[in-house]
Amino acid sequence: MPPVRSNFWESFAVGTELLVFGDYGRFALRYSILTNSWTWLADVMNNPRYWFGSASVGEKAYVAGGVDSSFQALSCAEMYDSETHTWTPLPSMNRARYRCSGAFMDGKFYVIGGVSSSHELLTCGEEYDLNRRSWRVIDNMSQGLNETNDGDPPLLAVVNNELYAADYRAGDVKRYDKMNNKWITLGKLPEQRVSNDSWGIAFRACGDRLIVIGGPRTSIGGIIELNSWVPDEQPPVWNLVAT
Predict the structure, then answer these.
(1) Which stretches does DSSP call E strand in the chain?
(2) Which of 78, 82, 103, 158 is in the most buried spot, having the most CB atoms within 10 Å?
């Protein structure tokens, strides 16, 4: 990776690329898994930002919200096409928010949680319909996730068009009930996971599996574990993949 300095980093994977943003989103680097190389991204987002929500599907990635360099919450959204390396503005959300999370489910882009410019904790989510090119507010979509938290991004993952969350405060795995707009507790996260709010644990989807990466910290570095589980109708039974 080219030598660069930044106080804030954001990243997402799309297609065969990994995009990494620094300096409040004002510069970006692109890693290609095909060539195993890093390059500077010539065209950064139309609205540089950090602490945004994002989700990818195929060769396209969607980003929304975040804050700019003056720490103003944003409502604007964009789409990145990894085949053409271009950014396309999308309609803005109804609520400006940062420290939010994104997910792609049932052909729609969701932005969940976050904080407003007045530091209000937002429990509503928003759904972007790609065909209608419009946003819909979903009240209380993040209600019940890390309720004692002060606005750290929800840890979300989608497997087979079902939305899951790692409730790092309670140590639970939850599934979103689309019909009733509520979260159902399925069971516990791996015992070895340790989080500093949402920053010390990774929660991802990989094919039909949920992946949790984390572990206890010690004075000499600690241990990081990678655990996986294929969601079913039973409580989670985590499989240790690597240490």
Answers:
(1) 9-14, 17-22, 27-32, 37-40, 53-57, 60-64, 77-81, 86-90, 101-105, 108-112, 125-129, 134-138, 155-159, 162-167, 172-177, 182-188, 202-206, 209-214, 225-229, 239-242
(2) 103
Phi, psi of 196 (to 5 degrees): -100, 85
Pair 127, 136: CB distance under 8 Å: yes
Residues of 84-96 as b/e, b for ≥16 C-beta within 10 angstroms?
eeebeebeebebb
Task: Using the structure block, give the residue that is written with the tokens 């300095």.
Answer: 5
Per-residue pLDDT of 18-75, as tens digits, reads: 999 988 888 899 999 999 999 998 778 999 999 999 999 999 999 999 999 888 999 9
Judging by beta carbons within 10 Å of its beta carbon (0-12, 13-18, 19+), is residue 36 exposed, middle or buried? exposed
**Model pTM score:** 0.91
Residue 227: half-sphere exposure toward Cβ, Cα within 13 Å: 21
CA distance 224 to 50: 26
Q: How far apart are CA 238 and CA 116, in angstroms?
A: 36
3-state helix, strand, coil in the chain (%, to 5): 0, 45, 55
Residue with tokens 């140590």: 171
Three-state DSSP at 53 gives strand
